[in-house]
Amino acid sequence: MRSASTETMRESTLQLDDRHINYAEGPQNGPPMLLIHGISGRWQDWDSVSPCFTSDWHVYAVDLRGHGKSSWVTNGYHWRQYALDQAELIERVIGQPAFVVGHSLGGVTALGLNAERTDLVRAAIYEDPPLFVHQRWEGNQFRLSFTATLDVLDTNPDFATVLTHIKETNPEYDDVRCHDRAEKLLAMDPDVFRSTLSGRARANWRSEDLLQLAQAPSLLLQAEPSLGSALFDDEAEKAMGLLPNAEYEKWDDSGHGMHNSYPERFAERVLTFFDAFRDV
């Protein structure tokens, strides 16, 4: 079944020197809004909420390098490189500063973009970003999951093998979600996980410095740690003490994927926050 987002979003490719970036674009119904998915995702991860935006915004959703239909890049999965790709997309395709929403890895990507190229960001929303995940890396749920999945991906598996792994490790997933997850993992360069697990992805990346440099207005959304948040309470407090122009909200009833768990609430929060800056 095609989603409402798939029916209104048109895929295109931005060709860069050594890579291409796949993205989807909605109708030109307002200011530009860029949606950035999390690790091992793809632009369709926003299908639950993007139909709420397309009627009044010019929505773009990107496949990060190494994900979806975007290029795999050898030794190219540093967090800063993800952010610089978004700067290229805004400059070459969108053509004006954008309102940016990023989930998880997309959240730190949005932060890097706001810090390095604030001139390209009207406002930003960081959805449960793993800003300080390396400080709690031993025994971390994400580390354990990435390690187990990478072990499977490194065997050059077929679809059935990946699907079986997902069903075994995520018994709460229904068949549709399992198939979607398997498709995304097979489209992703396994080195995305390898770079994250080894620490290469965040080498010389200091969230403390970038938070202070991110001048565009921003909203930090935190999920509940006991339900799988990538951001702990003390880390969110630390981030808010560094961000120069930010609001904060915690959802005690949501795990890491806030926009999929509560799409209507998420969309309303995004629109309420961004509407304050549409005419600024």
The overall strand count is: 8
Q: Strand order, biggest sheet? A: 1-2-4-3-5-6-7-8
If you average the pLDDT, what whole number results?
A: 95
Q: Please give the share of residues in helix.
A: 40-55%
User: Strand count, sense and closure of the main sheet?
Assistant: 8 strands, mixed
Q: What are the secondary-structure elements, in order, as H or E?
A: HEEEEHEHEHHHHHEHEHH
Number of helices: 11
Give a description of the structure:
This protein is α/β, with parallel strands linked by helices. 40% of the residues lie in helices and 16% in strands. An 8-stranded mixed sheet has the order 1-2-4-3-5-6-7-8, sandwiched between helices. The N and C termini lie far apart (39 Å). The mean pLDDT is 95.
Descriptive keywords:
alpha/beta; 40% helix
Topology:
Layout: H1 4-8, E1 10-15, E2 20-25, E3 32-36, E4 58-62, H2 79-94, E5 98-103, H3 105-116, E6 121-127, H4 141-153, H5 159-169, H6 175-187, H7 191-198, H8 207-213, E7 218-222, H9 233-242, E8 246-250, H10 258-261, H11 263-275
Parallel strand pairs: 3-4, 3-5, 5-6, 6-7, 7-8
Antiparallel strand pairs: 1-2, 2-4
Helix pairs in contact: 2-3, 3-8, 5-6
